[in-house]
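User: For my dataset I need records formatted as: sequence, then structure tokens, nothing else. Please produce one.
Assistant:
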Amino acid sequence: MHMKKAQAAMEYLMTYGWAIIIVIIVAAALYAMGLFSPGATSIATRFNNIGPPEIGAWQLLSDGSFLVKLSNGAPYAINISSLTVSTGIDCTSVQLNGAAVTGAGVWLGIGTNFNITATCGTPSAGSVYGIDIDMSGLNDKGMSFAESGRVTGTVV
């Protein structure tokens, strides 16, 4: 009597054991392909005055090169005299349209497209990043202008 119960138990384990092993192998393969890793969504937040960049208009490369393409969507021209790019620590070589921002500033008319570049360490490809951009200066009416925004994504 005990032999028949043991045989039934072994048949059960053999039948369903193989199925469980196959499910585990498939799950491991899907995990290795990154199916269960949500990754980072490219998001731009704040940028209340000039408007956010378009999706895909920024990237951070694994060599630390950062680029964001913006447009002055404010209803006035702006003179940017201070510009910082930070990932928690300040990035270096920050430039606006290929030149460092000086005290005299850079004038940007209404609707003018401009690029901000910086070097932000050496992040690992595939890692998630968040970069803060802060700029200030004057508008064409002589009033203070300040803008801040954050872009997030995955290092390329």
